[in-house]
Each structure stands twice: as C-alpha cells, then as structure tokens.
Design a protein that fits this description.
Blueprint: E1 4-11, H1 15-26, E2 31-34, H2 45-48, E3 52-53, H3 63-80, E4 91-95, H4 98-113, E5 120-123, H5 124-130, E6 140-144, E7 148-149, H6 152-165, E8 169-171, E9 178-182, E10 185-191, E11 194-203, H7 210-213, E12 222-232, E13 243-246, E14 249-255, E15 261-264, E16 270-271, E17 278-279, H8 282-295, E18 304-315, E19 321-324, E20 331-335, H9 345-356, H10 377-385, H11 389-393
Parallel strand pairs: 1-2, 1-11, 2-8, 4-13, 11-20
Antiparallel strand pairs: 3-7, 4-6, 5-6, 9-10, 10-11, 12-15, 12-18, 13-14, 14-15, 16-17, 19-20
Helix pairs in contact: 1-6, 1-9, 3-9
Amino acid sequence: MPTTHTGIAIIGGGVIGNSIAYHLARQGQRVLVIERSDIASEPAASWASAGGVRRQGRHPAEAQLASEAIQRWPSLSEELAADLHYRQGGQLLLAENESEAAQLATYVQQQRALGFSNVQLVNRAEVRQLVPSINEQVIAGSYSPTDGQASPPHTTHAFALAAQRLNATYWTHTPVLSLITNGARVTAIRTPRGDVAAEHTVLAAGAWSNELTIPAGLRLPIRTVALQMLLSTPAQPGILQPVIGALSRQLSLKQLDDGTFFIGGGWLGNVSHDNRAYTTRQTSIDGSWSTASALLPAVVAQSIARAWCGLEAQSIDDIPFIGTAPGFDNLTLALGFSGHGFAIAPAVGRAVADLINGQNTIELDGLNPARIANFQPRQIERFVNMSDENDYLE
C-alpha cells in the first residue's frame, strides 16, 4: 500500500482531537485525523461525558485555558454552525454545614485569585433562589454564573464537521497499529490503510495512548478509568438550572432540556481486561442515585432510565499532558484529561494549534509533558496498575 503524506496527523477523534483538527485546519494546515471507530462512539469519553462546562474548581495549571474556553462557549454554536445543546445555567458547589461553608469562603477567594472574578459566595436564601427545590440542609454555595453544560457527542461531531469543511481529512474505522520512529522523530504511523508520513503527529487517543507510546519507548503515567453516568426518567423541565455539586459529596447533577436528570461525579465502573469495554457497578449506581436524591429531592420521584460508563485516561497528577512528548521532536501529546477535559476543549484546540505553529503558549506551561520526569518509574508503575481510584488516593 502506498504511503499517505500529510502535514499533521492527529491520532484520536474525540472532542480534544477534533478541536485540535479544527483549529489547525482553520490556520490552513493539511490535517489528517485517524480514528479507530466512529466519532464520539461508545465507550469513548467524548461519547459518555456528563458535559459540564465549568471554570470553578480547576487546577491552577488549567486556569488560563478554562477562562478562555468559558468566554468562547456562548458563541461556539454559531462558530461551528451546529447545535451543541449548550446552556449557560451556572455551576453551584454546595455546603451542608458551617464547617463546609467556611471552606467554601476560602475556596471562593482561591477561585478569584485564579482570575475567576465572578465566582461568588451565596448564602442559604440565595442558593434557594437559584435552586428552589434544594435540600433544606444546604446552607451556602459557591456560584459561577458563566459556567454551564453542553452535549459532548454533539460538540465532538460539530468540531469534526467544521474541520472537514476546512478540508481536514478523516479516516474513521482505522486503528493505528504502531508509531514508526527514528531517533527523536516519528517518521510514520502504521495503519491497515497503509503508512502515514506526517511532518508532525498529535497523539490524542486518551485511554488507549500507551498502546502506541510504550513500544516507542515512552510510558505515560496514565491509566484507564470507567467513569459512570446515570440518566433519569423525565421530570418537569426547569426544576434545575445550574449544574450542582457538593463539597463533601461525589456529584455532578444537571437537568437536560427534556427534563431528565443527568448524574455524574466520578463514580467508577469496571474496565475490561482488554481496555476496550466496561461494566457498570451496582454500588456506584446506588451511591450516585442516593447522593443526587439527597441534595435534590425531585430526583426521588424519578427512576433510573439508563446507566453507562466512558473510558477516560486519568493522569498521575489529575491534570492533562499537553505539549511535546519527552524524547521526540515532532510528537505532541494532548491526553490524560482525567474526566475534566470537555469544558476546556475549545481552548486546548487553539493552544495546541498555536504550539505546533511555533507560537508562545505560556498557558500550557503547567501541563507540559516534561513533568513526567518528576515521577519515579515505581510511582508510575504503581499508579498505572491500581484497579481503583481510591487505592491511589490512599
């Protein structure tokens, strides 16, 4: 089979890979996206994600990207000429006792120090104005009015279609078999359709990235987790406008336009041995549902319509690796988003495109993959082989 030549090859057609493709194509680059399945298909994170668009609660290393992304989301549907199911209903982090309320006061100060100037501490009465049906034990909240929610599959497809309108090429149902390297360069990408020779390669394959980098001599400190989601039967629309979470609870709760409650928050399912599938955990289903019900009694009147998981790459320090891969000159990583990459995808795409084009991207400094060298091989080995998130956190 003949070798295909392109300017930039992107491995992975999730929301991050497609945002990068769109921004590169917008700059006039020759782009080829290689995706082993369909765009935003099960069990990829971009198919499964809860779709929160939040700025507050970010690691400082993500703060500049988060601010940029939040500014872009309100006009992103128009930019991409697609309905992203975006709603700017805010995000509300709740406190249920005086100790937690004091913690939230400090938290709000920290958010403002990161540049999130409109994050505000709200009292019991103000919380009830935002969510009239909230549990009475809630006494305070941290409210970020410019946060919101959107549909990850719709957004992922929108970026892909916009990239294709700008002449990006897509190979779907095309697994990458290996990276062909020579010294510090990736010289080709091997696929069943033939080799691809690219001037630059972007690896945005999420949970499956180590399958390509380990044979090339680079072990990434990431592991696959199955993040579980629940969808309820429809309630009356308009009960809940902001996305809500709680300081002492594992919860991300939103209501969709059709009235259904969408529940996430990091509850875990089980990853299959081949890293290709998942099974849900009944304990996570029960815990997630009871947590949502405890904060918003309206959930109790509904039942669980569906439970599923998305396979996500969790990094060893819970923030992504974005930048030049250690030991390579023409390989850029954009992976390890640890369950919170969707909201910042518009800014990540722009930043990676600028980075590849040689522009200054100080907003990526704290996410540089060079920090992999800070972790000992034994640390990485232990993290990668842990079967449950709590094992690592202990």
